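Teaching soon. Invent one.


***
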Amino acid sequence: MSTIENVSEVIINTGIEPSFLSETLTADIELTDALFDLIDNSIDAAREQILAQKNVKLDSHGLPADYSGYQIRLRFSAHSITVKDNCSGFDEATLTNSAFITGRKSSHRFGIGHYGLGLKRALLKAGSRFGFASDNGVARYRALFNSSSFSGNEKNQIPAKRYPTKNKPYSLFTVSGLFSDIKHEIEDQAWFDYLVKKLGVRYGIFIHKGLQITVVNSTLDGRATCFIKSSIPSLRKGKPITPFSDRMSTEGLDVYFNVGVHEKYKFAGEEENDSKQNGLISETYGLYFISNDRVIVDASTDKKHGFTTSWHNEYSGFICLIRMIGDNPGKLPWNTAKTELKLGSSVFISIREKVEKLAKEYRSRANVLKNIWKEIRENPMIEVEARKAEFAERTGLIFTKPSKGTSKVGSGGRIKSKPDSGKNGEQLKKTAVEAKNIQKRAENNKGKHTQHWTTLLPARFPISDDHEVLDNLIIESIDLEMRSAPHASSMLYRSLLETASRRFVKSRNLFVEIKDYYYARGEGKRKNHSEEYKRNQSVDLSMVADWLVVQSDIFPPEERNELKVAARKMKGHIKVLNGIVHGLQVSNESQLSIIRNETISILRFLVS
């Protein structure tokens, strides 16, 4: 007996949970990156309009040279974020079939909004309700929708209204129903400052070409309005290191390398050298990876991007702009968030190999200048003006603002010291006599180890050139025979360490850092000082020594171990030196030689 089965149909639903799509798209990006996605789309629209023109002006890389007239405006309020541009607007085919489709890649030539994720991701990152308006010169469109419109179901649709054009092309996106963390960010001054800074870097080249980006934040006091300026550093033209370049083509990309010195960086030995000013721009040194004019990685000193050695002062002022140009943006080695490079891609690996060679070339050229200046400044027989004149002659640098007592001779010429009269003239004569005596002592000390030096400091010990008291102490130390005056030599050496330390702290603006360390983790932690005493406490040699012992990054890599040992030795010898200065004990040549020999490298570092 057979049985007939009852058969019916069951429907199995498929799709993507809307919340999953939102969380997946936005989990790993910051609000700034989401906003950059919207700006990228605006720039793509502007570029497409520019390239469609006849006789379009291109730069040396084949990209549009002029974005004048195009504007992008970001506005933050307590309840919404709005991004508006005056670019071409969405044509109807793009609006209906591409703009809101996740993963449908852009076909823009030289595009930067390539991955088809940016628009949705930007909206979903910030809030739950959205508005859109656009005019393309043919028609105008408006739509209101929310996050439920972005499910994984392709049948989801956004109704938009079509109006007659007003012949003023633009696009506008607004996000309301802001999430609490987003509200907190846009109301924070530090976040706003960070956004402004990053806009100047990420879009610096477009801004340099005429694009205007304005940011308004009405949640901040005074309704902050910023007109973004380009923050891409330019290369210094001409000497001392003439910019050099290279080029390669790989897998459909043209890559241009431009290497040189930061336009505001001045080398030691130059008339306008200012260590404080150099320090202010130090965060902008490094590698800049740029895809179709959009900066992806800025000011990198990371080994993963091409440095074979750790960053140190031999790279000071170093700028390398890597311009990656691709008609098909899909070939560019960047991630979907456009915040990093695809480090494992064959394209990037070949680029990185080129970067390594160029960085080494810069280091080699910079070392030539560094060694010339070191050689000149360590010769105490050469006066400051003469030092600078010799540096100018040997490097080809011309001082734009000669110091008093100098005269400028034509291009590449030497800056010579003029004879002086009166008090200054007498000082020059006195210095000349001292120089002869120093030269004689230098011959006595030539080729000898520190243990055989007869004077407190060797004749070729460097001077600071910016601290008169310290330099006078060094000159006296070069002249002082330890054997004949060991006690006075000890007090003088203690003064050298103290004065050099104070100069070092002041020049690097380390007062607060050293003081905080001393009382939080250093020797001062065990002292029962009142808060009033701490506030009025200045930084002394013991505090500097305490801080130096735990430092690593502040020392040049090639001297780090030696200087760390010397710092520990200095800390240990301070008690003895203090006792000598305060008349509590007597010193002798042997004891001072040990102290001097064990600490002279840290003294040289503090002076240099």
Observations:
- The two ends are 106 Å apart (CA to CA).
- The chain is about 40% helix and 15% strand.
- Confidence is low (pLDDT under 50) at residues 399-449.
